[in-house]
Amino acid sequence: MSVDDGDLPAWDRIEGIPDPLENRALVGHAGVFDHLAARYASGRMHHAWLLSGPRGIGKATLAARFAGHVFRHPDPTNAPAHYSKPPANDTAELQVTRNAHPNYLHMRRPWDHKDKRFKSDLTVDEIRRTVSFFGTSAGQGGWRVAVVDTADDLNAAAANALLKILEEPPPRTLFLVLAHAPKMLATIRSRCQKLTVRPLGNEQVVEALTALGLADGADENDLLLAASLSGGSVRRAITLVMDDGASLYRRFTAMAGAPAPQWDKVHELAGELVVASANDRYRLLLDIVHDYVGRRIRGEPEPGGQGVPAPSHGGLAGWVEVWEKTRRSAQLADEWNLDRKQVILNLFSALHEAA
Hints:
This protein is α/β, with parallel strands linked by helices and 355 residues long. It is built from 15 helices and seven strands. α2 runs antiparallel to α3, α11 packs across α13 and α14 packs antiparallel against α15. 36% of the residues are buried.
């Protein structure tokens, strides 16, 4: 990869899907947008906001689109108290989508030029990019917007560096700190106004898939099932659609719900998923199993409305044990490069023991 760091896409970008900065078809979150717009227009905009919510629901895109709003209205006293989508040729918006606006800094896991891969953390060097960013006069006047994507990825040194900046922010600066499950320093949380970004509804997920062109030619039932299984995450829904998650879910639930283990079918499925090219479907199966067991614990129905009775006290303990076993088994397989086929066999064995 020979591009500059500032031009890099997200480290976890899905091939063929726009980078969050590029995506202008953000669905939902009108309440969050309008809350931020109203605070900005009031002239009492807090310098740092913590936007937290599940992965893949659009937080990074939301941050980029709100940055465009701020750049279009550099004077808060003349800014509208609500967010409205800009025209396709809006200059500020186009600059943000290209990560090229002089007043915009988007910090996420950087590219390791030596190892030719993305780093596993959002590093202190990435946070220190703010020194040069704030050390120059704001281009085009107005505010500067810095996005931390995400706080979950901050290592200890980066978190402490961010804390120092938040304690003494430059004037007319807006920090948007994104988090899937915020576990950063309490001192960082205390310096941010908190906004919860909610998962999308099923209809909104389908709308987002349609906007991305993933509904073209798709089976309507499969699309609705993907939305139901997504947990309100467009990212999860994209993975489900692109990796035929609907059929994988149906195969899994048929085997998991059988009166006795169907080991021939389990071995067949495991054999398909252990090859290197099936890594995404293997991960998808683990997510499907995780969510399935979670519904058993909570006594919730499966997508499609099929009722599931709440487990007895003993049954509940059994499902909690399955959840821990399957999570730990997959984690150990990743850490020690263990046989994935055995992971799948073990999880089906645990599922039938708990049923």
